[in-house]
Design brief:
- 3% of the residues lie in helices and 34% in strands.
- The chain is mainly beta.
Length: 221
């Protein structure tokens, strides 16, 4: 079965409801967050003592995620145990550190904007900075990200499988205990496959609406 043995190491730290929307702009101000709201002062740590945030456990499912912004910050293959991502405020002071302590933890930060040095990310419903580290972390578009998910789940009563990416197409029955793996994106539609290679099947399902992902996402089988 495709991609189930892929070593995916992402750390996910999203609020369930995300309301911030920023568009990528050719002009980058000297202050990377000058065009966005400031991070609350009581969340900023300026002392040498380091605050550590634990990444999400791999069992966690992700649902109703906001797709505002330009994509998702994820870990590359070279990002391993003991590696860190430092979250900074708009003055580039550390707020907290995300530390990878388990190989089945997921780095995933909603990216609102970027410039040559920093990604602007959503951190606890406010903008923050993450320094770019080529080879360690990277930006994926939402379309790219959904195709790198191990498998998805959905409520067939409100979001049924379809033979074609069309609401008027024939409905396909959802099979119990199957893994529905992303294959192809066409706008708001996602083609998923399931079954063994000799008897593999596929159909289409909606994966997003105007602002949110409407599937449950699983990063590990």
């Amino acid at each position: 079965m495709r991609r189930l043995n892929r070593n995916i190491v992402f750390i996910g730290l999203f609020a369930t409801t995300l309301s911030i929307s920023c568009k990528k702009d050719a002009y980058q101000p000297e202050n990377p967050l000058s065009s966005t709201a400031s991070t609350s002062k009581d969340s900023v740590e300026t002392e040498p003592k380091e605050t550590i945030d634990s990444p999400d456990d791999f069992h966690k499912m992700y649902n109703n995620l906001s797709t505002d912004g330009i994509g998702v910050i994820v870990a590359e293959e070279n990002f391993g145990l003991g590696d860190k991502v430092i979250i900074l405020d708009h003055d580039q002071n550390p707020i907290t550190t995300i530390l990878l302590e388990d190989e089945k933890q997921v780095l995933r930060l909603q990216c609102l904007d970027e410039n040559s040095r920093y990604y602007t990310v959503n951190w606890k419903n406010g903008p923050a900075l993450v320094a770019k580290e080529p080879g360690k972390i990277k930006l994926e578009t939402w379309d790219e990200h959904i195709l790198n998910i191990c498998c998805v789940d959905f409520d067939e009563k409100i979001n049924p499988l379809k033979e074609l990416p069309d609401d008027g197409s024939e409905t396909v029955a959802k099979m119990k205990d199957e893994l529905y793996m992303p294959v192809e994106v066409k706008g708001e539609w996602l083609r998923v496959s399931w079954g063994h290679q000799e008897n593999e099947k596929s159909a289409w399902i909606k994966w997003r609406n105007e602002k949110n992902i409407i599937l449950e996402l699983f990063y590990f089988a």
